[in-house]
Design brief:
Layout (H helix, E strand, L loop, with lengths): L1 H6 L13 H6 L1 H13 L4 H16 L2 H7 L3 H6 L2 H19 L4 H9 L10 E2 L4 E5 L10 E2 H6 L7 E5 L4 E2 L15 H4 L15 H21 L10 H22 L3 H12 L1 H8 L6 H16 L25 H5 L18 H13 L3 H8 L6 H11 L4 H9 L4 H13 L1 H10 L3 H16 L2 H11 L1 H14 L2 E3 L11 E3 L4 H4 L4 H11 L2 H9 L1 H12 L7 E2 L13 H20 L8 H21 L10 E2 L4 H15 L12 H22 L8 H11 L8 H14 L2 H11 L19 H20 L8 H15 L4 H7 L15 H10 E4 L13 E4 L1 H7 L2 H7 L3 H18 L30 H15 L7 H16 L7 H5 L16 H4 L4 E9 L10 H4 L4 H7 L7 H16 L24 E10 L1 H13 L14 H4 L11 H15 L1 H12 L12 H38 L25 E2 L6 E2 L7 E10 L28 H15 L2 H7 L7 E12 H13 L13 E2 L6 E2 L1 E4 L8 H4 L7 H13 ...
Antiparallel strand pairs: 1-5, 2-3, 2-4, 6-7, 8-9, 10-11, 12-13, 14-15, 16-17, 16-20, 18-19, 21-22, 21-23, 23-24, 24-25, 25-28, 26-27
Helix pairs in contact: 3-4, 3-7, 4-11, 7-8, 7-11, 11-12, 11-13, 11-15, 11-19, 12-20, 22-23, 22-25, 23-27, 25-27, 25-29, 27-30, 29-31, 30-32, 31-32, 32-35, 33-35, 33-37, 36-50, 37-45, 38-40, 38-42, 44-45, 44-51, 45-53, 51-53, 53-54, 60-68, 61-64, 62-64, 62-67, 62-72, 67-68, 68-70, 68-72, 69-70, ...
């Protein structure tokens, strides 16, 4: 190897070092030790040279690899083994040399001892689970690894767990990022003091070896890099190089983990400039080095970077004071509007592409930026390493290595500077990258560690111009995707915007850079520098203007747009991330007076940028029609800084506002957006597709609203408060296109709007005015008031969970801003306005989360419809809020009818915005209000209640905010000069309300009804003068009004002579088509606002003279105006409230109101019904009728369903249930009648047209999960805890069966036990019946139904046609009576011996299968279904496959399974008695018929029938032992009595007679009792046995000896003592068996407990077969009650003395004889197998109810253990780990590694553990998933947070706690097999889970 290594050096060196090489190689350690000694000498030059030579040789052994990677394929193929081996050799050498001859591991340990571990610094990659504690964090990016988090104390803190997206590092120990109180135990101690100094010789070798090693790595990277051809990076090549370098980088990474001492050596090496210069200059004679240096220069060049050969120092010359490092003048010209800098290259560029290029050229013309963008000079290893890291697109290993070094302070600073120096290069690489997502994450992984630290950020900002670099780099990045803006003036626009369709925006590629920028702006010191630097602000505004007006929408007028572009999301994301978030970051530093200057700067440059923008798009005063952009970041910057200035900095608003002309321009675009919103909601943009609705929604959505709609509305409020109110109001109506509607005439023509849109646009305009005038978000509300208002609005729309509240309440998008939801103020406001509703369960099983609901007083006083309208994304939410409000009023008895939105008092306006209220007191608005009131009163079309509501709201606002009280005298006397029109005298609403308007001149179409009454004289004149004479009001045109005002304002502002008055733009956008012929008419009105209101009151109440001024009765009202009765109500209340307020405001109004009321009001004119209205009336009528019809039908159906609903909806509550009998239960009815739910006919079930029950068959292993201890098993949460299934019911039964099969005859074994503990078939029904032929056609129709169902029809699945319960089969009902009532009414007097004979005879008759009828066919097919329900392995237990015994065993076990499960559903005993829920919908009777029919086909040979052994004595006992070679039958005492019962009953012809049933039970009870005695005798020790044997023997001759347990026990003991049953025990076992002394009471209890399970099952069976009710009883008397119910107790039995179980015995043959016969069988078996003989004895049943595993209180304990646990199959950590809640098995969900024959692990486990039912907890999601057969569903979570909410996928990461009620519900559904019925959302899993 060494020879190969030496030979590979090549080049000009003669190969003489070859000879000593082998020696060196053999003993690396010796060489290392020798070199170390040489270097330790004071004069170590010789040693150093020797080491250099050695390293040169060892490390250059790696050269061939690079050659191979260079693409010489042959070499690569040939020398496959060589390079790898050489590399390992080199690494071995390095390790040896570092350790200086010692062992490498000992060396590592020695270095670690000197680690001053003050910082954790653990670096992690994506998907790692980390923690963030907001209580301890100083920076919002702070994060902790799980270990540090759990070691620290964060109780009661606001923390959450999260999955890292980009990777990160642990900040524990770093006091710059988090508070020291949160440090964990390891990092609390500042341990640097007590750590000894590092001995010099320990790391001496490292200092020599590492530079060469790192240089070798860099050479590698240089040689491996090939410039990709034609801009397609050959990722394969890059990855190949990286793979080969894996060991080297890992080696470096391991070094960093050795702790602080080694890190500081590495820092020295990486930052030492001398080392770098010596090694990499490429000047030596080594050809390799030369070649690698050339490659490095090529790489630099191809990256568009220059290598500054001249000695220019990097870091720019200090700029002269006052300007920024960016040339201001260079950037001012960047928008291309202020004259070009170098116009030489203007002409040769064209098209939008050219524009971008041109700009880039121009921008880089300032030399200073060029240095930012294009110059890189590397002076240390670190710098070049970073360069290659970027070049190779941030390989994970390199990133981790560079980050692992960060705990070293010196390194941190050096690395941060290097990173900043490469910033532009990073951006260029990112743009080119194909994997920009991965790369973005890795960049942020690094930068967030560097820039979150304020100290570091400040230092870099000062020393490396960080801000300049970032802003410039962002600007350059966006310039590559600019296009020409089409807003406003398409041809001549000079404005450029980003193109949202480009990958850069679509894929959020800019995200890492913007995120860094936001991060550094969160530091005060950095933000201040930014805000002080004018040049930077100019550049930044320039950057923001690229987004101004992007993603322009043009309204499609003709046909639907072909392709809906989805770019809008990119646009919203870009504005939020690139513009709004930095803005919020800057705003958070402008909170105090001292920062006024910053605000002034921002506002100044913002206005300049806006002015440039208006010039660039050529804007005068009219926006272009039919186009809208939602993106106005410049407007929003301006608005938000204005708001901050007034709210926090006490700036005078007027000092930062521009002139009127600019204000008029500023308001246009935000107003255009508001109008467009109304248009979009009126469906006027419907041809633009759904995406335009998406934009309208996103604009108001909670994450965007406070950066979008809120600033827009605030800016409009500011403009409105400073502009002429008439101008503003008329602009609004003009923008909303409803000017033409505002006429007194009954008809009008609208040139710009279709009639069907008018109403909703008018509603939109009025609603907008109401919002504008009542919203106070930026006009004086404090932060807490805002939070409260937002919260109330959200809660009023719907009850909300805590997390959805946090989600819906707009927070500051910048995390640093202060109000964090979940903070103290959030919780305190929440508890003030809302009540918590704990999570509850509804009977349908749907689970509720913990919800917050508004308190009553909130509805009463704080419900604010305006806020709700502003914040709703969907219109239906407004309706929902109103519905909830209505419900509250009804419930609290405040108002019974349909209320109107309440009027809410507003917080007082901030003085700066007082002007806003002038809108309410301007004539224009009053004319509009008057007109609308008149139109509503006259029933003109297109007006809705909503319009009236808003009109009244505005009037009320005006009254609330009227100017100071007017003195009544002077009000009416206003000089003629104020009356330039005769509508209203003044501008105060209070006085204008009472002003009567007599005539109005209107322009109407010639067809209008008004024209006819017109006096011809007055039509001629339309000029002002004639109007004054005639005394009518003039035609009022909003548009003319606005033009006039606009002209005035312009003239005023342009009084300086040098400005030319701008021409009024021609209205070139009026709608196409000829203007309609209008003529003028004069209407007689004679109304005032007050009189209209009073008439409206009459109209609304439908009564004449309904309004009576309240103050006439009660003068108090005027003094004390706040009357609660006016707070809530409908329109009538609103009118009354307004009139009262008007009267309060002025005596004059009061007088006039009284006058109007005195006059008898003329009736409202009758309605002329036009054809169109008639049509709508007809439509209404038709609808009404249809509704009534529907109601009738529904009522009918409801009554049919009612009885069913009452039973089916609550599967878990047996109490409140009305029994639903399948048929009537009167005894005299001979035949059961069934209703078919498909065809609706009733009738009996017959042979040829059978009826069947709708049933669901499912395999179940619930019984098998019973365990013998009460404590449920816990879910394992440590390695030690494991669950073993040995003690489950299923396991015990399995063992027993296989033991029997070892020693006894197979067929006999299969009769001695039951199966079905695992995979038993459970049958359940909803109780509905149908004809089987109806069912077949129903299935056929389902098959042809193309709708996707949640079930598979091919597998026979369907839902019950009536109750929709899931089912998969139909169980035929046996013809004849359903309840065998007549047979058991008269008990027969036959003796038990006779009955026994009858039973035997009946069983002996072979059951011929009935003739081929439809019924029998169905019976067969349902039997097939039952068999196919479970897997073969759960049916076949026989040794000979396919033997009939198997079927026999399977069939009676089905009956057993269903009885046992019903017992469990009843709680494990029958104390509650009665017909429980399960009983009522039970199908056991029908099931028994089907099973019996099939069992009778297999007759048991009468020789082997156990009945014989139970009831007859065998003559000669020795006959059995004759045939040794054949396996014996199972001794009768080893038989399971319950199985025998089922066999006996199912072998009888059905229907069964009651006395036969009782006979069978009595006989079996004798066997059971004997088994109990045997078990008892084995339980006690030798002395006890002897004592009993003795005492019992004395009483043997008493008369009731056969009914005394003492006698029987003594007999059993004496009989069994003949065999070896008692012998085999060792002495020690004796002591173990029973330390307790047996008293007669304890023995009696033991015997009763032994017999109880049998009695319970038997009683259930009797209840189902004969319909007897089960008596209820106390637990202690259960035995006696059941035994008398079964007829075991003689009726004359007296209950005075204590009850003795033996008194139930009724021996068919002498007891002692038969017992001795039974014992003989056992003795003969124990002769040979004493041990097994004992094990096989039937033990008392000890099974407790089945339970799921017990879960820990806190979810974190589960999560921490399982999410890192490796899979047992593939030993990897699964991506989706899950754990089975039934048995605790750990499985991979969807894991391909564990797939077996196309089944994934969860599905496989569900089949093995639950016979097709699996309940899994998904560890990473905290959710439970249910697998049932071929379907699965997400069940929900049983872990909830403190607010009662699930946290699916652990997105919020808050601590979760077990919700016991939910877990109980889950367990209940599992036990009762109701998953299919209760959970609705099922889907197929295709075995892929």
């Amino acid at each position: 190897m060494a020879a190969a290594a030496a030979a590979a050096v090549g080049g000009p060196q003669p190969p003489q070092p070859e000879l000593p090489a082998p020696g060196l190689a053999l003993d690396k350690a010796a060489t290392a030790a020798h070199l170390k000694a040489a270097l330790s000498r004071p004069d170590n030059r010789a040693g150093a040279e020797e080491l250099q030579a050695l390293l040169e040789r060892v490390l250059s052994a790696e050269r061939p690899l690079a050659a191979a990677a260079d693409g010489e394929e042959a070499a690569a193929a040939g020398g496959g083994g060589g390079p790898g081996a050489a590399e390992e050799e080199a690494l071995e050498w390095c390790k040896c040399l570092l350790a200086g001859g010692g062992g490498y591991d000992e060396f590592c340990a020695a270095v670690r001892a000197y680690d001053p571990a003050a910082l954790c610094g653990l670096v992690w990659t994506a998907n790692f689970v980390a923690y963030r504690c907001r209580t301890c964090g100083i920076s919002p990016c702070m994060s902790l690894c799980a270990e540090c988090f759990h070691q620290g104390d964060h109780t009661g803190h606001d923390f959450n767990m999260f999955r890292s997206q980009a990777g990160g590092a642990c900040d524990c120990g770093d006091s710059n990022v988090m508070r020291e109180s949160g440090f964990c135990k390891r990092h609390q101690i500042k341990s640097s003091s007590n750590i000894p100094c590092v001995p010099k010789d320990l790391l001496m070798m490292s200092e020599f070896v590492l530079p060469r090693f790192i240089f070798c790595l860099i050479q590698y990277l240089r040689e491996g890099y090939n410039e990709p051809a034609a801009d397609v990076p050959s990722e394969k090549d890059l990855n190949k190089v990286l793979q080969l370098l894996e060991p080297q980088i890992s080696f470096l990474e391991d070094l960093t983990k050795m702790g602080g001492a080694m890190r500081s050596v590495l820092t020295q090496v990486l930052t030492n400039q001398q080392n770098y210069k010596d090694l990499t200059s490429g000047l030596g004679e080594n050809a390799c080095a030369k070649k690698s240096h050339e490659k490095y220069l090529i790489a630099l060049k191809s990256s568009g970077l220059t290598y500054p050969e001249d000695k220019l120092v990097y870091g720019l010359q200090e700029p002269s004071a006052g300007t920024s490092t960016l040339a201001v003048q260079g950037f001012a010209g960047a928008t291309g509007t202020l004259g070009q800098l170098d116009s030489s290259d203007e002409e040769d560029q064209d098209g939008s592409q050219g524009l971008g290029k041109r700009k880039r050229v121009k921008l880089s013309s300032s030399t200073k930026d060029q240095s930012i963008m294009d110059v890189l000079k590397h002076k240390s290893f670190l710098e070049e390493l970073l360069f290659w890291t970027i070049k190779y697109e941030f390989p994970q290993k390199m990133v981790t290595f560079l980050l692992n070094m960060l705990p070293d302070q010196e390194y941190k600073v050096a690395f941060t500077k290097t990173f900043v120096q490469h910033y532009a290069f990073i951006m260029k690489t990112l743009k080119k990258s194909h994997e920009s997502d991965t790369m973005s994450n890795r960049i942020v992984h690094i930068s967030v560690q560097l820039f979150s630290n304020e100290e570091l950020a400040r230092q870099v900002t000062e020393e490396c111009q960080l801000l300049d670099i970032m802003v410039t780099v962002l600007l350059y990045m966006m310039e590559s995707c600019l296009i020409k803006s089409e807003l406003q003036d398409e041809e001549n626009s000079l404005h450029v915007v980003v193109n949202c369709g480009e990958a850069l925006l679509k894929n959020n590629t800019y995200w890492p850079l913007v995120s860094d920028f936001i991060n550094i702006l969160s530091h005060q010191s950095v933000a201040k520098r930014f805000l002080e630097d004018h040049g930077l602000l100019v550049t930044w505004m320039n950057f923001v203007s690229f987004f101004q007006g992007m993603n322009l929408n043009k309204r499609e007028l003709n046909e639907h747009v072909e392709f809906e572009s989805q770019t809008y999301y990119a646009a919203f994301a870009a504005e939020l991330e690139a513009c709004a978030q930095p803005m919020w970051g800057l705003l958070s530093h402008c909170k105090v007076r001292e920062t006024q200057e910053y605000t002034r700067n921002v506002v100044r440059y913002c206005l300049e940028a806006l002015q440039d923008w208006f010039d660039a798009i050529n804007f005068v005063d009219e926006p272009a029609p039919n186009q809208v952009t939602f993106h106005l970041p410049l407007h929003r910057y301006y608005a938000m800084f204005l708001s901050k200035a007034v709210k926090c900095q006490e700036l005078d608003l007027d000092s930062v506002l521009p002139d009127q002309e600019m204000l008029m321009k500023l308001m246009i675009h935000p107003l255009q957006i508001q109008a467009s919103l109304a248009e979009i909601h009126s469906n006027m943009w419907v041809r633009n597709g759904l995406q335009i609705k998406g934009q309208a929604m996103t604009y108001v959505q909670s994450h965007f609203c406070n950066s979008m709609i809120d600033p827009d509305i605030y800016l409009l409020q500011v403009c409105a408060s400073r502009l002429d109110p008439d101008y503003f109001i008329s602009s609004v109506f003009e923008r909303f296109k409803v000017v033409d509607l505002l006429t007194m005439a009954s008809q009008h023509q609208n040139t710009v709007l279709d009639a069907e849109h008018e109403r909703s646009m008018l509603e939109g305009a009025l609603t907008f005015l109401v919002i504008l005038l009542s919203l106070r978000l930026h006009l004086g509300m404090s932060d807490d008031e805002i939070l409260r208002a937002e919260m109330v609005a959200q809660l009023c729309m719907n009850d909300r969970t805590h997390s959805s509240l946090i989600h819906h309440i707009p927070e500051n998008p910048n995390p640093k801003s202060g109000i964090i939801p979940g903070s103290y103020s959030f919780e305190s406001v929440l508890s003030a306005v809302a009540d918590f509703k704990a999570p509850v369960f509804e009977p349908g099983g749907s689970m509720q989360q913990g919800m917050y609901t508004p308190k009553a007083e909130v509805w009463d006083q704080e419900f604010d419809p305006v806020m709700v309208i502003l914040r709703t994304v969907y219109r239906r939410d407004v309706q929902s809020a109103m519905d909830r409000y209505t419900a509250f009023l009804k419930q609290s008895g405040k108002f019974p009818g349909n209320p109107w939105p309440p009027y809410k008092k507003r917080t007082p306006l901030h003085p700066s915005y007082k002007g806003l209220m002038r809108l309410l007191h301007c004539k224009t608005l009053h004319i509009v209000l008057f007109t609308l009131l008149y139109k509503i009163l006259m029933d003109h079309q297109n007006l809705s209640e909503h319009v009236l509501c808003m009109v009244l709201y505005l009037i009320e606002l005006g009254l609330e905010n009227s100017a100071e009280e007017e003195s009544d005298e002077e009000a009416s006397v206003c000089g003629p000069e104020r009356c330039h029109d005769s509508w209203f005298p003044g501008s105060n609403l209070v006085s204008n309300m009472r002003h009567f308007i007599n005539y109005v001149r209107v322009r109407v179409p010639e067809t209008a009804p008004e024209v006819k009454r017109d006096s011809p004289a007055s039509t001629s004149s339309d000029s002002l003068s004639s109007l004054h004479n005639s005394g009518t009001a003039q035609v009022f045109s909003l548009v003319a009004e606005r033009r006039k005002k606009f002209q005035e304002i312009i003239n005023r502002s342009s009084s300086e002579a040098n400005q030319v008055v701008r021409p009024k733009t021609s209205n070139k956008w009026s709608a196409p088509g000829s203007a309609p012929q209008l003529t003028t008419a004069i209407l007689e009105i004679k109304e005032s606002i007050l009189s209209l209101l009073i008439k409206l009151h009459h109209k609304l109440s439908g009564k004449q003279n309904s309004y009576y001024p309240p103050w006439l009765d009660d003068i108090e009202i005027l003094i004390q105006p706040e009357i609660p009765k006016y707070n809530h109500g409908d329109g009538i209340t609103a009118v009354e409230r307004i009139l009262l307020k008007a009267a309060l405001q002025s005596r004059m109004n009061k007088r006039i109101i009284e006058e109007i009321c005195r006059k008898v009001t003329p009736p409202v004119p009758p309605k002329k019904i036009t054809a169109a209205e008639k049509k709508t009336l007809d439509k209404e009528e038709r609808r009404q009728k249809a509704r009534e019809r529907q109601q009738k039908l529904l009522a009918e159906f409801a009554s049919r369903q009612k009885s069913f609903m009452e039973t089916a909806m609550d599967v878990d509550s047996p109490e409140n249930d009305i029994p639903m009998e399948i048929a009537t239960a009167e005894p005299q009815v001979s035949e059961a009648v069934y209703d078919c739910v498909i065809c609706g006919q009733s009738g009996p079930s017959s042979e040829d047209r059978p009826t069947g029950l709708v049933v669901l068959l499912q395999a179940s292993s619930v019984l098998g999960q019973c365990r013998d201890n009460i404590e449920p098993k816990k879910l394992p949460i440590t390695e030690e805890e494991q669950i073993y299934p040995w003690d489950t019911c299923a396991a015990v039964h399995d063992v027993r069966l296989s033991l029997l099969q070892r020693y006894f005859k197979d067929s006999s074994c299969l009769l001695a036990v039951s199966i079905g503990w695992e995979g038993g078939v459970y049958v359940q029904t909803c109780g509905h019946t149908l004809h089987i032929d109806c069912h077949k056609s129903y299935m056929e129709s389902l098959r042809n139904d193309q709708v996707l169902q949640g079930f598979s029809v091919d597998k026979g699945e369907f839902t019950c046609p009536l109750c929709r319960q899931f089912a998969n089969s139909v169980l035929p009902c046996y013809p004849g009576s359903n309840v065998e009532s007549n047979l058991w009414q008269r008990p027969s007097n036959k003796s038990i011996q006779d009955l026994i004979k009858e039973v035997e005879e009946l069983q002996g008759r072979p059951g011929a299968f009935p003739s081929e009828t439809n019924l029998s066919k169905e019976m067969e097919s349902v039997m097939k279904d039952i068999k196919n329900t479970t897997q073969k392995k759960y049916r076949d237990y026989s040794k000979t496959p396919g033997s009939p015994d198997n079927d026999f065993l399977f069939m009676y076990s089905v009956a057993r399974t269903n009885l046992e499960l019903e017992l469990i559903h009843r709680g494990g005993n029958l104390c509650s008695g009665g017909a429980s829920t399960a009983g009522k919908r039970s199908c056991l009777n029908q099931l028994f018929h089907v099973l019996a029919l099939h069992m009778r086909l297999y007759s048991i040979d009468s020789e082997y029938n156990p009945w014989r052994k139970l009831t007859q004595l065998v003559e000669e006992m020795n006959s059995q032992q004759g045939n040794e070679e054949q396996q014996p039958e199972v001794p009768i005492l080893y038989h399971d009595v319950t199985s025998l019962l089922l066999i006996q009953i199912l072998m009888m012809p059905q229907p069964l007679r009651k006395d036969h049933f009782t006979c069978i039970v009595k006989v079996l009870f004798t066997l059971l009792y004997t088994q109990a005695l045997v078990a008892l005798s084995v339980k006690c020790n030798e002395e006890d046995r002897l004592a009993w044997k003795h005492t019992g023997a004395l009483k043997k001759n008493a008369c009731d000896a056969e009914k005394s347990y003492e006698v029987l026990l003594s007999f059993v003991i004496s009989e069994l003592s003949k065999g070896k049953l008692y012998h085999e025990e060792g002495t020690q076992e004796c002591a173990m068996v029973s330390p307790i002394a047996w008293s007669p009471e304890s023995m009696e209890k033991y015997l009763q407990d032994f017999c109880l399970p049998f009695l319970r099952i038997t009683s259930l069976l009797q209840h189902h077969l004969f319909g007897e009710d089960l008596p209820s009883c106390q637990e202690e008397e259960e035995f006696s009650v059941l035994s008398s119910c079964l007829g075991l107790l003689p009726t004359f039995y007296q209950t005075e003395h204590p009850f003795i179980s033996a008194s139930c015995l009724d021996w068919p043959v002498p007891a002692f004889d038969i017992i001795s016969q039974w014992c003989f069988e056992i003795n003969s078996f124990t002769e040979r197998h004493a041990e097994q003989g004992k094990a096989l004895l039937i033990q008392e049943s000890r099974w407790k109810l089945p339970h799921l595993l017990q879960l820990p209180e806190n979810y974190n304990t589960i999560f921490q253990y399982y999410h890192r646990k490796t899979c047992s199959v593939c030993t990897k950590v699964p991506k989706d780990p899950a754990v089975c809640l039934v048995c605790g098995t750990f499985v991979c969900l969807k894991g391909l590694c564990c797939k077996q024959q196309s089944y994934c692990e969860c599905v496989l486990h569900s089949q093995n553990c639950g016979a097709g039912t699996g309940i899994f907890l998904l560890i990473n999601a905290s959710v439970i998933i249910i697998i049932r057969g071929h379907r699965f569903c997400l069940w929900g979570s049983v872990y909830l947070d403190a607010h009662g909410e699930e946290d699916r996928d652990l997105r919020r990461g808050k601590p979760l706690y077990i919700c016991k009620e939910r877990y109980k519900v889950l367990e209940q559904q599992w036990i009762s097999h109701t998953f299919d019925h209760i959970n609705k959302r099922w889907g197929p899993h295709y075995n892929g889970l």
